[in-house]
Amino acid sequence: MILKDYIIIGGGISGLSAIKAIREEDKDCSVLWITDEDRLPYKRTQINKNIASGFEKDAFALIDHDWLVNNHIELLYDHVQGILTDSSEVSFAHRGHLKYKKLIVAIGNKPKGLGDCIVPEENKFDVYTARHVENIVRSGKKAQRYLVVGAGVEGVETASQLKKMGKDVVLVDRNKQVLKRYLNKKYSDFVIKSTKESGIELLLGVKEINFEEVGEGRYALVTEVGKMEFDVVIAATGYEPNISIAKEAGIACNRGILVNECLQTSSPDIYAAGDVAEHPDGIITGLWHAAEKQGYVAGKNAMGRNEVLTLKPFRMKTEVFGEFYFAVKPKGCEDRVVTEVKGPIERDIYIKDGKVCALLMKNDGDRAKIYQQALMEQWDLDKFHQEIPL
Ligand SMILES: Cc1cc2nc3c(=O)[nH]c(=O)nc-3n(C[C@H](O)[C@H](O)[C@H](O)COP(=O)(O)OP(=O)(O)OC[C@H]3O[C@@H](n4cnc5c(N)ncnc54)[C@H](O)[C@@H]3O)c2cc1C
């Protein structure tokens, strides 16, 4: 049986970072990278922000074929079906087994979807892979009325893109806030205002979402406020760590694959990184830069280092309806908040023990990197004002 020194499952940013870390340590060991998508690993964050313009297959590719060749990385397009921890093997549906010395599981999330739902596949899309988004773009040739379920960041971004395409859009969520994971009520209200002004019909606080066939091949959303017909429904209902193969392998999982602070799983030769990993404090990060950092630490530690992951306050940023938002959401244990407004810019700076620990900001996107630095380095308010004056 073929033996690889390192096998990385998952063609996302955490997988790529792990490979870069491995190659920093050793230029010659054998590295096999496995993705079950249909293209070179790409910048996932870009796909739903570019629905209106559409995109070429490898438009957001993170690396190219030369990079793989120059770094001696074998990229295999296949789906790993199982992990056998006793014999250190991964298994495939049609390709048999491969043996690893160390394994990095970087398989991200899976979309929650709409559950049991009468709407057929051709009228229903997830928004997780580039292929999903290409299907949404293609649907635009025929469809006019779109229903987006879920007003988290991916849902609002997707709805805003569909509106840009001139579509009729209904955005529905069971919460009364939008982007609830990242924004407080005040900033959520800013987004709600611009969503409504864009012409999107926004239905919030909808407790039950049901679908009904209203004619041959025609469907409607049925809620307590009435019925709304649509051509296409997009499920932006959130994501959950993709733990099934790890769980079946007997690797300890909770909501995500449980890792220690070095990103090692309960199986000592196996590391997990990115959206699939659940950290000792129960955190699952769900953000690009956090996944990038974790992949790097997992790669280093798989190489025998002993790096401890520190989870810095990674930010969410998004631009919707011409407005920019940046958020490291306060946890509720801050000592005070300083609100500052100048022109279109507004920012709420949260302070704990004299240091900036959280920030909600609107329309100061050009300085997003410095805001991120302020949070990472926990500046005090004086330094914050000196470096990022309003
Ligand atoms: C539409 C969208 C927009 C986003 N926008 C932002 C944003 O603006 N800012 C931000 O910070 N974050 C954003 N995120 C989140 C961010 O993309 C993720 O945090 C990040 O991609 C996680 O990287 P990862 O490597 O952990 O996993 P993923 O990017 O999920 O990659 C995992 C890969 O593993 C593959 N895989 C899974 N199972 C198997 C298997 N059994 N065999 C082989 N391959 C497998 C998957 O197909 C996938 O290619 C967005 C996410 C989505 C879906």
Describe what you observe in this structure.
This protein has 390 residues and is of the alpha/beta class. The protein folds into three domains: 3-109 and 240-302, FAD/NAD(P)-binding domain, CATH 3.50.50; 113-235, 3-Layer(bba) Sandwich (FAD/NAD(P)-binding domain); 330-387, no CATH class. It contains nine helices and 24 strands. The chain has helices spanning 13-25, 65-70, 130-139, 153-164, 185-197, 244-248, 288-302, 368-376, 381-387, and strands at 3-9, 31-35, 73-77, 80-84, 89-92, 96-105, 109-111, 124-126, 145-149, 168-172, 201-203, 210-215, 218-223, 226-230, 232-235, 239-241, 257-258, 270-272, 277-278, 316-320, 323-328, 336-342, 345-352, 355-362. The strands form six sheets. Strands 1, 2, 3, 4, 5, 6 and 18 form a seven-stranded mixed sheet that branches. Strands 8-15-9-10-11 form a five-stranded parallel sheet, with helices on one face. It has a five-stranded antiparallel sheet with strand order 20-21-24-23-22, sandwiched between helices. The radius of gyration is 22 Å and the shape is globular. The N and C termini lie far apart (63 Å). The mean pLDDT is 96. Flavin-adenine dinucleotide binds next to α1, β2 and α7. This is FAD-dependent oxidoreductase.
**Dominant shape:** globular
Give the bound compounds: flavin-adenine dinucleotide
- Please give the oligomerization state of what you see: single chain
Q: Architecture of the largest domain, CATH level 2?
A: 3-Layer(bba) Sandwich
**CATH class call of the largest domain:** Alpha Beta
* Rg over alpha carbons: 22 Å
Share of β-strand residues: 25-35%
The number of domains: 3
Kindly report the average pLDDT value. Answer: 96
GO molecular function, one term: oxidoreductase activity
Cofactor: FAD
Protein name: FAD-dependent oxidoreductase
Family: Belongs to the FAD-dependent oxidoreductase family.
